[in-house]
Task: inverse folding
């Protein structure tokens, strides 16, 4: 059993200026997940008649991307390739102080406590992250051939769960890794070709319009990414953009 | 203009400046000679290009201004992208870890800007023939820039200023060189690590090459 000191960001709503609150929590076991530890805290807060700490979660198995906290200054905590829901309390020591903050970016406004609004990502996807498909009968299984390296590369980019850790960890609050992963995934597949140039222009413009920062290739995004999406995707995005400019694609 | 397009301009202007810095060092290596002849002859040769040199100088100023304006605009975008910062922020390392040079490009760049202004004021617009810094080249009067440089670096304070400035150049280029290739979309998985290493070595070579000029002059002349 561990006892931890928690310093948690509390904010009533998006207008509230917010503050840190300190809680001492005991009864934590090493096999609890970080979110289960917060559940334990919330049960106690509710019993005392206080407002529980709001945070997002859904699948609790690292695939939905809704959980995301900055734990002691690191997005999803210090473990690599891990989402907050998969972070276990055995990585902490009895008596530790843990500072828990929400993702911080102008484009991700805090809604309440540790919950932020990540719909900016949805708008980036909507701006161009689709492929036009032929309607009509179901195509033959192997009618469109995709080589293994291309399939692998698309799959690697597609593992992005849109959690926003890249933005949270980036000293520039840039959404380049997310946007680049979405662009790269579709750019390499035969189905994505029709909108190839238009897509990169639109998604980049939307990324800028949301108020994210300017990528300077620091690389913290890659380290924070629970799916270990490579910054090679960012180079691909730049290449796609340059190629679309040179081809004179409509924007 | 999008942030991606701005970074193309940053990358191109940055690499052009790297090209300039390399040529500048190659020319300045003549300062490691124990006589003033090679350096003054090099300066004389440059100035014999006349209006062509002026065109090159104006071009260089334009590249510098572009780089600085876009660099600082990019920084401004990023500062406004996180109005409220973290109470605690820690690097997470990873396969291409961030470092003091990648996290402080605007600071090292701004210090370089201050240095470039000082440097140009001191030497390019410093005392020349009229002030008595004269030598003869091919029977003509020429500026004795070598004497000005030696006099400057006999002062340990100037040696310290130049050495410090060159350390910031090294910091800027350690990240800047590979970053420019990444910004321009010219990296692939197998080139990233090599470019990062090469950029670090290039930055170190340029820093050391420049830095020992004032040190050498201080001790050898
Ligand atoms: C000798 C002079 C200089 C050289 C060789 C140089 C070179 C470079 C290179 C190669 C980059 C990387 C570009 C990229 O990632 O696309 C860079 C970035 C940067 N430079 Fe310079 N630079 C010099 C002077 C300056 C000055 C005077 C400033 C001014 C304030 C400055 C500010 C910046 C900033 C803020 C960045 C990062 C911005 C970004 O990556 O978006 N630099 N520099
Ligand atoms: S709750 Fe779904 S990824 Fe963590």
Result:
């Amino acid at each position: 059993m561990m006892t931890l000191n928690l310093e948690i960001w509390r904010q009533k709503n998006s207008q509230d200026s917010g503050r840190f609150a300190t809680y001492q929590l005991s009864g934590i076991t090493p096999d609890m997940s970080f979110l289960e530890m917060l559940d334990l805290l919330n049960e106690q807060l509710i019993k005392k008649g206080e407002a529980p700490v709001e945070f997002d979660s859904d699948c609790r198995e690292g695939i939905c991307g809704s959980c995301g906290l900055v734990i002691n200054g690191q997005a999803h905590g210090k473990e690599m390739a891990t989402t907050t829901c998969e972070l276990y309390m055995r990585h902490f020591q009895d008596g530790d102080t843990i500072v828990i903050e929400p993702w911080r970016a102008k484009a991700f406004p805090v809604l309440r406590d540790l919950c932020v609004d990540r719909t900016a990502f949805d708008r980036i996807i909507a701006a161009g992250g689709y492929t036009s498909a032929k309607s009509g009968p179901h195509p033959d299984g192997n009618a469109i051939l995709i080589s293994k390296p291309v399939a692998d590369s698309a799959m690697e980019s597609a593992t992005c769960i849109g959690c926003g850790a890249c933005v949270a960890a980036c000293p520039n609050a840039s959404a380049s890794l997310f946007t680049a992963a979405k662009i790269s995934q579709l750019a390499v597949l035969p189905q994505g070709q029709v909108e190839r140039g238009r897509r990169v222009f639109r998604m980049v413009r939307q990324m800028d319009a949301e108020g994210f920062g300017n990528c300077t290739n620091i690389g913290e995004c890659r380290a924070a990414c629970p799916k270990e999406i490579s910054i090679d995707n960012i180079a691909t995005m730049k290449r796609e953009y340059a190629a679309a400019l040179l081809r004179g694609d409509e924007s | 203009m999008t942030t991606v397009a701005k970074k193309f301009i940053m990358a191109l202007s940055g690499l052009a400046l790297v090209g300039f810095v390399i040529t500048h060092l190659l020319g300045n290596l003549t300062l490691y000679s124990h006589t003033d002849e090679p350096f003054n002859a090099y300066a004389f040769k440059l100035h014999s290009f006349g209006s062509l040199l002026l065109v090159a100088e104006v071009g260089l100023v334009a590249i510098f201004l572009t780089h600085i304006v876009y660099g600082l605009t990019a920084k401004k975008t990023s500062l406004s992208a996180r109005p409220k910062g973290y109470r605690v922020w820690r690097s997470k390392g990873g396969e291409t870890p961030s470092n003091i040079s990648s996290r402080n490009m605007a600071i090292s760049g701004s210090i370089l800007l201050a240095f470039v202004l000082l440097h140009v004021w001191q030497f390019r617009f410093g005392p020349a023939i009229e002030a008595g810094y004269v030598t003869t080249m091919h029977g003509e009067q020429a500026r004795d820039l070598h004497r000005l440089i030696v006099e400057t670096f006999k002062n340990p304070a100037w040696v310290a200023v130049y050495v410090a400035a060159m350390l910031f150049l090294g910091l800027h280029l350690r990240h800047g060189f590979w970053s420019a290739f990444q910004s321009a979309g010219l990296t692939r998985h197998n080139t990233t690590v090599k470019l990062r290493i090469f950029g670090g070595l290039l930055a170190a070579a340029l820093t050391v090459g420049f830095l020992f000029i004032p040190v050498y002059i201080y001790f050898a002349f």
The radius of gyration of chain A is 20 Å. The longest helix of chain A spans residues 232-247. The pocket of FE2/S2 (inorganic) cluster (ligand 2) is lined by residues A 57-60, 62-67, 83-85 (CB under 6 Å).
